[in-house]
Design a protein that fits this description.
This protein is of the alpha+beta class and 119 residues long. It is built from five helices and five strands. Strand 2 and strand 3 form a beta hairpin. It is elongated, with a radius of gyration of 18 Å.
Amino acid sequence: MKENEIKNQKDDNFLLYIPIKKHEEWEIRGNKVYLIFHHNKPVERFMRWLVKKPSVSDIELDKIGSKTWQLIDGNRTVHEIGQELLNAFGESCEPVYERLIMFLRYLNRKGWIYYKKSQ
């Protein structure tokens, strides 16, 4: 590898990215976060009518997922969120960064968050 290719890999550390919420509707019930979804697109309305589903649904996040969602504020990096999770849950959330990165990638694939590089 060339020297600047190695430098680019070091500069592109995922732990330095800042996750930002795109999904705006959520609430806290008890100690858990619930993501709220409205099904009002034409196809979704038809499917709701077909299978008798409600127009609003939610997804309950577990305690670590709920804490992670609350820590995503547009300022904290992935590394800082991991440190906060370690402070809050200790060894019960180990391996913290592997779990955190997997969860954040899931949220990103669903279109509920996106990333920006930290300065």
